[in-house]
Write a structure and sequence with these properties.
The chain is built from eleven helices and two strands, in the order H-H-H-H-H-H-H-H-E-E-H-H-H. The N and C termini lie far apart (65 Å).
Length: 275
């Protein structure tokens, strides 16, 4: 467990520094520069009396690959601090367990973080402001930034403090309870629900095709859109999203997709197929 050597003030220093976690990414180590930069003040304090171990700690984190959703990267950082404290107190501590901990958390945490923040919260934030933006409301981007950033700013801090206080026993506890898999699954369900809701609300597509009628004014033409809505509301938007999803799976680029949608949309509208 962690000692009293690291204070809340020290954790706040790391918290502020790790907003720069993604500032110097590279392919060999991904976030290793930002991760080491964030931990520097605490590593200096932990190994103040042992220059050799301090230098080893710098090299250890600079040379290790790390890539975690930034908003919850505080969790492995906090556990790292607790483990470095253990290493400072004991000459028999196996420092390879620090790398093992970081590696074992990268996948599960990224799955959870990407689902919550990128696939769910960002979409919800977009859904909240898209109507305001379409009306020209200048507050739309401000509201988007607040809805998206306030939760992740809070998550950064509490993931860091939680990781530190849970310390070296976190991995074994997580494996025993299976909590990581449960959170990841629940986040995926919420993310899919949010995407489905956005498809229904924000994707606008309807057909202008009509048939029948034409005998004086007694019989009105039947609208194909009404028939489709009676079968399943928002059928066309769902089909459109499904087609785009299929094409993305076939590695079609986003730019060709956007241009294709514009061209096909103009052609279909010109022939009176879509409204």
């Amino acid at each position: 467990m962690s000692s009293d050597k690291i204070t809340k003030k020290d954790l706040r220093k790391i918290y502020l520094r790790y907003f720069a976690l993604n500032c110097m990414n590279d392919y060999p180590g991904q976030m290793h520069n930002g991760y080491t930069f964030s931990l520097l003040p605490v590593l200096k304090k932990i190994y103040a009396d042992n220059k050799e171990k301090r230098v080893d700690a710098y090299k250890r984190h600079m040379n290790e690959y790390i890539n975690v959703t930034p908003y919850i990267a505080g969790l492995p950082m906090g556990i790292t601090i607790a483990m470095e404290e253990e290493n400072a107190k004991s000459d028999n501590f196996d420092t390879t367990t620090i790398a093992t901990m970081k590696t074992s958390l990268m996948g599960p945490l990224s799955a959870i973080g990407d689902t919550i923040f990128h696939s769910t919260l960002r979409i919800i934030a977009t859904a909240v402001i898209v109507e305001l933006a379409s009306q020209g409301n200048f507050m739309a981007p401000v509201i988007f930034l607040l809805v998206f950033n306030i939760p992740n700013i809070i998550a950064r801090y509490y993931s860091l403090t939680a990781g530190y206080h849970m310390g070296v026993g976190f991995i074994s506890k997580a494996e025993e309870s299976g909590i990581m898999d449960k959170i990841s699954y629940a986040s995926s369900v919420v993310g899919l629900m949010a995407i489905g809701a956005m498809t229904a609300v924000n994707v606008k597509l309807s057909t202008a095709i009509t048939f029948g009628g034409g005998i004086g004014d007694e019989i009105e033409p039947t609208k194909l859109q009404s028939l489709l809505d009676s079968i399943m509301p928002k059928m066309l938007p769902l089909c459109l999203v499904g087609i785009i999803y299929y094409l993305l799976g076939k590695k079609v680029g986003v730019v060709p997709l956007l241009i294709g949608l514009l061209v096909v949309g103009v052609i279909l509208y010109s022939f009176g197929i879509i409204a």
